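2.7 Reproducibility. Because tokenized structures are sensitive to small changes in the input, we list the exact sequence used for Fatty acid desaturase domain-containing protein, including any N-terminal residues retained from the expression construct. No trimming or masking was applied before prediction.
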Amino acid sequence: MSIVTENEKTSLLGESNLTKERPSKNKKADTSRPRQSKPYSQRFRNGSAWPIIAWIGLIHVGALAAPFCFTWSGLITAVVLFYLTGCVGITMGFHRYFTHAGFKTIKPVRWTLAFIGQLAGEGSAIDWVATHRKHHAHSDGEDDPHSPQDGGVWAHIIWLFPHHTGPEKDELHMRWAPDLRKDKFIWFLHNTFILWHLVLGAGLLGLGYYLGGWYTGISMVVWGMFLRLTVLLHVTWFVNSATHIWGYRNYETTDKSTNLWWVGLLAFGEGWHNNHHAYPRMAVHGHKWWEFDLTWNVIRVMRMCGLVWNVVDYKQKTKDGAIKV
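Resulting structure tokens (single pass, no recycling of outputs):
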């Protein structure tokens, strides 16, 4: 089991990939020849992660029923849960708070973010944060869990399919997310991941039945669970794949991260990915006036309400001091 030294604690929050404090001369994505990638036989040396494959497959198959059971209740449920679990849970909670400590908050808000984020279907906060911190430490390098340098489809989805042994998972958690492993409530959520999806599904079915019978109940499950999860998964995966392939760059970084407008809009501001890799702890990802960042606006409102504080809304200090954005 790895021991995290004092010098490594800061790097867990995300070391900057910035090479220079100035705009990138290469405004376009880096299309240079990719590095040599590991063969699939090595990546799948422990076999396939069939529970994860089954989970993702079930979600996608269930989403196919959406056109056949449309109701306005189902659509509204999908939109509301897409925003709550995606914007509040994943981008604000799992990413900007838990992974990078872009702000501080009280424990009830902390635990609520962990719970809501888990309902996005992307794993527990511990799994998500550990993987993402490792990504920042090795962005587009050989040890990056999901780099397009190993293939665009790999970065988008296939990276989830190799099986990892229990000791390998423990190593990942203790090396990259020891702070979350120590939180008993978050560890409890980690061990009850599927349970809360079943509870949510049963709740939607019951609410729909109460509002309009079985058809409405089934509609709310299909739209609020299966279709919503399918869309949200791919939106998140586009950040891993598309924003390391296409787009423009505001900063020169050691990786191939880019800003991509349509991912920025779909992923609540996460698509301004080159900005984020240049300044990973910043809670604001849009650095130009046109780079709209919905998650940042949610954080601003919560700061005005006193629910979050110590918000990192500036670039890391340079010789000239902190630069406001």
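Strands lie at 18-23, 104-105, 251-253, 308-309.
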